[in-house]
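Hey,
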Amino acid sequence: MAVEEIHAEMVSSVWKVLVQPGAPVAAGDTLVILESMKMEIPVLTERSGVVHEMHVVEGEVLQEGDLIATVTHG
């Protein structure tokens, strides 16, 4: 079973969390929406699987590289 770690690509805040642990996801599904410099940035999963853990909450400020979620595949 493979685990995909999804990290923040820039300093941003968590605007909306769209999935919860245990939720099935398809490749390209949006997990969270981040906000940076008044822009909304969707964070997507690359492969289908199941959300294992969410490491963020709405309103949280993230630094580049912070872990957002883990998704298990296979």
